[in-house]
Design a protein that fits this description.
46% of the residues lie in helices and 16% in strands. With 81 residues, the protein is α+β, with helices and mostly antiparallel strands.
Length: 81
């Protein structure tokens, strides 16, 4: 994943970066629900817009997708770099 210092900004961003992996809402409710809605992504090309630290991109890659990202208006090809 992208280092927190490049993915988030200011105090609220620092808080989110610190808790996004383990908070009940992000890690156990929102992210699993969104990934379940995406279904089987193996072999698909997926664009993660506003990828932050790349939590979704990491899960999509693990599911076999070719995941690209767009963050702050710049095409990076991946949140994983």
């Amino acid at each position: 994943m992208m280092p927190a210092e490049t993915a988030y900004h200011d105090e609220l961003g620092d808080y989110f970066a610190k808790n996004a992996d383990t908070s009940p809402y992000n890690a156990h409710t929102d992210r699993p629900a969104m990934l379940a809605l995406a279904g089987d992504v193996a072999g698909l090309k997926v664009l993660d817009v506003g990828c932050g630290a790349g939590h979704y991109a990491a899960e999509l890659l693990a599911g076999g997708a070719e995941a690209g990202s767009l963050r702050d208006g710049d095409w990076s090809g991946s949140c994983m770099t």
